[in-house]
Design the sequence.
């Protein structure tokens, strides 16, 4: 059945000259072009909200005040209880997009989210086990390094596509601007979202591993003697000399003269948090030895990741709070 409606402005019903008239002052929506439908909907919106300027101003004021107060609360929470803030933010970063994409039936995102969640859940489970398995630090580093490289490359490609579209280069390949822009923005979001999420999960895994990895005990005394050819992280033999180039991985020697497998020591110092030798706990500047992708991002890129974390995790909560306040006060 064709949809028909009337629009009334200033006490007079208008059809804006669109469509065919089944009855006086009525428009048949089923026979209108998308542009004409938008004009009719726009006119109906103006008719509906006419005379509500005071209420709209009040709603805008509520939005601004809520945003300011919420920002102050989040900053204080992060400064005073950073661990709980990071855990809650990580959980919301992980779950909030799932709700909206399920509602909108974005199956490609749901597929990538499911694959990421399964693999990351397994890696996180391994990282939180006590005693820690000898292969876990290597596994943690390999997975999050791979995730970082994929997300970074995806974001770069998405940004390039967006810029090409803005300069009109998509027309060379006979691609519609809206299609090219949608593709570029989607890739950019995928790269940034999984980059932030992988970075936060890597930090969480590093915190758990730090309390269980290595040979040392809580008293600071090694629980057993470390041979010169044994890695203190995984407890397995080192087959490649420090001066040799390994086929799969190299061997690294810290300033305290203890040697480790490359992936083991990188798993230990993931996100640059663990600045001590896993065996003797001597202070070591690991950031000078390794080009850590999480610890040395560009300043603007790091700020962009923080902004995206706030946008995805907390913005929906704040908007929902604003809508709840408007509902309680009877504002529409």
Sequence:
């Amino acid at each position: 059945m064709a949809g028909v409606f009337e629009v009334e402005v200033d006490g007079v019903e208008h059809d804006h000259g669109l469509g065919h008239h089944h009855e006086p002052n009525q428009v048949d929506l089923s026979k209108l072009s998308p542009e004409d439908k938008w004009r009719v909907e726009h006119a109906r919106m103006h008719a509906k909200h006419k005379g509500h300027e005071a209420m709209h101003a009040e709603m805008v004021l509520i939005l601004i005040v809520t945003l300011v107060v919420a920002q102050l609360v989040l900053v204080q929470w992060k400064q005073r209880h950073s661990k709980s803030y990071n855990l809650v933010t990580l959980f919301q970063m992980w779950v909030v997009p799932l709700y909206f994409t399920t509602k909108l039936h974005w199956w490609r995102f749901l597929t990538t989210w499911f694959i990421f969640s399964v693999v990351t859940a397994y890696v996180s489970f391994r990282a939180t086990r006590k005693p820690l398995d000898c292969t876990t630090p290597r596994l943690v580093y390999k997975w999050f390094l791979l995730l970082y490289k994929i997300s970074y490359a995806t974001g770069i490609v998405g940004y390039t596509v967006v810029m090409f579209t803005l300069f009109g280069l998509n027309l060379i390949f006979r691609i519609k601007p809206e299609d090219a822009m949608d593709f570029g923005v989607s890739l950019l979001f995928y790269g940034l979202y999984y980059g932030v999420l992988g970075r936060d999960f890597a930090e969480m895994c590093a915190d758990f591993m730090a309390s269980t990895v290595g040979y040392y005990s809580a008293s600071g005394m090694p629980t057993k003697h470390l041979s010169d050819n044994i890695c203190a992280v995984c407890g397995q033999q080192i087959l490649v000399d420090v001066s040799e180039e390994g086929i799969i991985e190299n061997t690294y020697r810290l300033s305290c003269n203890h040697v480790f497998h490359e992936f083991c020591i990188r798993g230990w110092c993931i996100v640059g948090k663990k600045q001590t030798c896993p065996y003797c706990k001597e202070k070591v500047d690991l950031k000078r030895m390794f080009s850590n992708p999480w610890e040395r991002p560009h300043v603007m890129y790091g700020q962009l990741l923080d902004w995206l974390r706030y946008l995805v995790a907390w913005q929906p909560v704040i908007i929902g709070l604003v809508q709840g306040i408007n509902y309680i006060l009877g504002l529409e």
Q: What stands out?
A: Residues 127 and 136 are 6 Å apart (CA to CA).
